Amino acid sequence: MASRKDSKGRKLNTGESQRTDGIYAYRYINAQTGNREAVYSKDLKELRRKEKEVNADIDDHILTGPSVKDVTLNSLWEVYLYTKVLDDGTKANYISLWNAHIRDTVGQLRITDVRTSTIKMLYAKMDKEEYACSTLQSIHNLLNPLLELAVDDDYIRKNPARSITIGDYGKKTKFKTAISPIQQKRLLEFMRQSKMFSKHIPMITIMLETSLRCGELIGLTYNDVDLKKKELYVTHQLTYRNYQDGEGCKFRIKKTKTDAGKRTIPLTDAACDAFRAIKLQNFQLGKICSVTIDGYTDFIFVTKHGRPMMPNGVNNALYNVVKYYNEYELKKTSKEKREPVLIHQFSSHVMRHTGCTNMARSGVNIKAAQYIMGHAKSDITLDVYNPLNNRYDAKTEIEKLEKNGVKVV
To answer: 0.90 exceeded by the pTM?
Structure first.
């Protein structure tokens, strides 16, 4: 049988054809579906490039065909979310992140159109908008396993997110800088002489002395504290968010973040005094816990209405303390003709960070610090919470070396 040729006299291979309008087609049988399918191009060279891709996908059992190629990240996300075993709080966080940053951006793309550069552009845009490194990492923690699922399900050959390092982004907010000892001292001195902020001293002291997560802090009940034994029992967290159950935002008790999060923290004298102070303060102000949440009641940190403090209530208190401290410090140093000791705005997470960094500065064993922090792995304690990377820490460590180090000269 004579070989078929195109309009330019070039030989056409098996499965190739040219229509009367000049468009080239390559027809093949989809091995997964058994359906007859085709790819098209105006150029024979381009058609044969597509042929190679199709045949390589078939050989590697990569799904092909119009219906498969139209699957978007948003579509696969619904499958991924359904198959993941998540508690309600974590699931709500995932959905909130996806809806805020992915659904209307890369989420609308077909899986086969997502490239490494696509994801890098999303992260670079968020970096320019000064999103925190932790936010970028959280989004990456959604996209990376989702695209791994796409590989496992044979939608794509390789995961375009796998090679991306979040450390390349979020540089403006990469580290939550711990508050230095001198900043801690000045802040507490300011609060002691302030009628407005002195009431927050016990809470801030407990945060610094225990390094609790915000949810662990606001979830504390008086049953969790034994001042005679000087021990604090961390068994749960209190969360406040929308759990996507139609009831809106609400409080809920949830397990500690990891199994390591369930722990008994030894209390310092300063922490014990702070717990006594907050109990006396609540009594004097008539602040009595009026609610029971998932079987827990008698919460320590409550509002004037007897409800537990919300996470943003803790962070708002910290924000206002720092704001007024900086204003006070600037006025004071202007009169005293000295450099001000200012403090960057920080959250409850930075207080946890600072508490752990204080342990590192004091020489606490890393495994002990890991236990107190409730980290599953010590490298988290080392890499995330103890970046002794500023001038104060460098000077302090060299002074220790000079005093206690091995003499070689």
So the answer is: no
